[in-house]
Amino acid sequence: MSVEKTLGLRPGEWVEVRGREEVLASLAADATLDALPFMPEMLRHCGQRFQVHKRADKTCDTIDKTGSRRLYDTVHLAGMRCDGSGHGGCEASCLIFWKEAWLKRVDAPAPSARGGAILAGANGGCTELDVHGAAVVPGAADTYRCQITQLKKFTEPLAWWDARQYLRDVTTNGVRLREVAQSFIFAGYRKLVELGIGYRALIGAFDRFQRWRGGTPYPYRDGHCLQTPTGELNLQPGEMVRVKPYPEILATLNSRNRNRGLYFDAEMVKFCGNVYRVGKRVHRILDEKTGKMLEFSNPCIILQDVVCRADISKYRLFCPRSIYPYWREIWLERVPARGAGSA
Fold it and tell me: What is the pTM of this model?
C-alpha cells in the first residue's frame, strides 16, 4: 500500500479514518506502526470522519513522570477517547493517538455507519485478530498492552527547554503567546518559592495578587492529614456538583497530597469552586507502567469537560493529551442542576 505518512494536519481539519484493509496493511505483525499500537477500540472508527482536535507532537510521560516526550506524524481527533472494550473494560477514557498514515483529508463531515464484523482474513502484515491479540499480554492474568503502556516505545525524550516545542504549540495547536509567557512566569515564581527563602511571604503575595485578578491561589501546597478522611455521595452520571474550595480539599490530603491513595494534582486547583456535570464513576483502570488492571476500592469521579490543561505542570507544559483528572467524592458537593460552569 502506498500511503502518505505525513499530512501536516492542523486542528479543525476534517479527516476520514482509512478503511480497515488499508490500516491493517500499514501495521507490523504486532499491530503497530512506528511502535504505536493500533488498538481494537479503533477498528470501529474506520471509514468515519472526524475533526482534528490537536497535533500530538508531544505528550506527557505518565509512566515514569520524566516530563514531555516527542512524537511525529500523529494527531488527536475530537472526541476520540478509548472506551476500554479491548482492554478489560479500562475506564480511563484516554484520548487516542492516530498516525497520519491511518487518515486522509476530506472536505466536510459526513455520516457513516459504526461498527462492523471482525474479519479474520490477512491484510498486509496484520489481521484484525492480530489487533485484538496484541492488546493482551500472553500468560499474564488481567495484563494488557495499549498505547499508553507502550508510550515510551513510540516517543523520545523532549527537554523542557527545547524552545521549538513552544513554537509548535503556538503555530499549530492554538496556544497563545500570552499563555506561554504566563506559564514561564509562574514556573520562575514556583522555583523562587521552592528555594524556601521568604516562603510564606511569597505565597501570601501570590494569593493576594490572584484574589485581585480573580485567579486561583498558589497551587503547590502540601496536605497535613495523618489519616485522610473519606466521604461518599453516590454520585451518578449527569448530576451537577461543585468542586470544593482548595483549602477544604487540602484538609483531606496527606503530606504527599493524596487522599486514600489518590493524588490531587496542582492542575486541578483551577477547577475549585466551579460547577460541573458528573461524567462517570471510575472503578478500574490500567496501571500504565505494568499494564495490570487496577480496581479502585474507593469511588473516583470523572467530570465532563474537566481535563488537564498542563499550563502549570513541571517540565511538561501544554501537553495536548487532555487527561481526565480523578476526583474523590469528598472533594465535591451536590448542587441543583442548572448548568455547568467553567474555570
Answer: 0.90
